[in-house]
Amino acid sequence: MHEIWSQLKSQVSNIIPEKNLLNRYVITGVAFFVWMIFFDKNKWINQFQLSQSIHRLEKEKENLKKQIVEAQKDKMDLDQNKEKYAREKYYMHKENEDLFIFEESLKTKQ
To answer: CB–CB of 78/87 below 8 Å?
Structure first.
């Protein structure tokens, strides 16, 4: 075992000539970070994915809040003027009335 360790140490020292980088604290620190990034249950990749998910859900929450405000405006409009709302949204009309529907054209004339 000692023989393997000395061979490994000599090979690493050929790659990294400074012996200060080979002390056990640096090796332990590197091993700790490798463990935390790749092997731990709270690994960095999971944390990144969770933060992305949180960001996406917060955007969705803001969009839903906007839709709620719009729905509340429509409800107030319906409560205040039911006849106007029915005529505009559902094209309802009385028996003796003619109904004309004008659609906006998105194409511009050239």
So the answer is: no
Q: What is the 8-class DSSP label of residue 104?
A: P
Polymer length in residues for the chain: 110
Distance CA 87, CA 1 (A): 89
- Maximum separation of any 2 CA atoms in the chain, in Å: 105
Alpha helix (H) residue ranges in the chain = 2-15, 24-34, 44-80, 82-90
- Tens digits of per-residue pLDDT, 20-75? 656 778 888 888 888 887 787 777 888 889 999 999 999 999 999 999 999 999 88
Dig out the tokens for 5 from the structure. Answer: 């360790």
What is the pTM for the complete model shown?
A: 0.47
Q: Is 43 exposed, middle or buried (0-12, 13-18, 19+ CB in 10 A)?
A: middle
Find, among 11, 34, 35, 38, the residue nearest to 22 by Cα: 11
Task: For residues 9-29, give the mean pLDDT.
Answer: 69
